[in-house]
Amino acid sequence: MAGRFAPSPSGDLHLGNLRTAILAWLFARADGRPFLLRVEDLDRQRSRAEFEASQLADLAALGLTWDGPVVRQSERDPLYAAALERLTAAGLTFECFCTRREIAEAVSAPHGPPGSYPGTCRDLTESEREARRAERSPAIRLRARERTWTIRDELHGEIEGHVDDLVLRRGDGAHAYNLAVVVDDADQDVDQVVRGDDLLDAAPAQAYLTHELGAPAPAYAHVPLALNADGRRLAKRDGDVTLRDLSPEHAWDLIGTSLGVAARSPEALLAELDPREISREPWIVTF
Ligand SMILES: [Zn+2]
Fold it and tell me: What separation in Å is there between the alpha carbon of 107 and the centre of ligand 1?
């Protein structure tokens, strides 16, 4: 068993990300779990080695420690390919030739939320697929056998959500985030997923994919996001929100205050706060 924090190295971590990291650490340590760090750098355009370095340095500056080596998704392609092969062998994938635009313009799946995959390519014949392959290289999608799935979240309780025919591999051959995150968590024995609640909607389909890969579902804890005074997701332009502008002590002050605790270090926090008791409300960061 293990918990984890899995940032994307596309920028500096801001206060909201740092708070999520601290809470992920706290959830893991409170139950005696190892705490793993995984760099989600599948997006080669946006990922930068210098951001990875600054993110890890920032976490260390806050006093967070992690177990084992840092894992990078960009180095794990064979693992994702193997998982995709297993799903394909089980008849659980199909080739999708749709453009983004075609999906946006199609009528959504009958039971799906807006934007969900309409099923266009699910039942193409082999000769139809053959013809389409000449035009474009297909994405690979999950042939979902369930349309809803229920997860257990430590903060939100039972959440039932839609299961889409998720893209597992994009048309350009890159493995999709939804596949990588599920394969990594299963491979690393992560049984506790703590992350921002902007990902709560994605969790049921990811848990379903976990199930189809034969792994046990992790426990989830989707923690509140940090918002600016306008109620929008905190961003770098909102001011001094990264450790480029704030000392670690100042960041701990802001984060500790937001959690209603006197603790200003990971160890003190572990002694003082049960992470399951934190507020479910967003953290409005004001300066
Ligand atoms: Zn399609």
Answer: 13
Rg (alpha carbons) of the chain, rounded to whole number? 20
3-state SS, residue 94: strand
Q: 42 and 74 in contact (C-beta within 8 Å)?
A: yes
**What are the residues whose beta carbons fall under 8 Å from the beta carbon of 277, sequence distance 6 or more?**
none
Q: Which among 111, 133, 136, 236 is annotated as catalytic?
A: 236
pTM of the full structure: 0.95
For residue 285, report the distance from its CA to the centre of ligand 1, in Å.
42
Strand order in the sheet with 157-162: 71-72, 35-39, 3-5, 192-196, 219-223, 148-153, 157-162
Give per-residue pLDDT as tens, 242-270: 999 999 999 999 999 999 999 999 999 99
Residue 236 a catalytic site member = yes
For 269-286, the pLDDT digits (tens) are 999 999 999 999 999 998
Could you tell me the distance, in angstroms and rounded to a whole number, from the CA of residue 215 to the centre of ligand 1?
A: 27
Which residues of the chain register pLDDT less than 70?
108-111
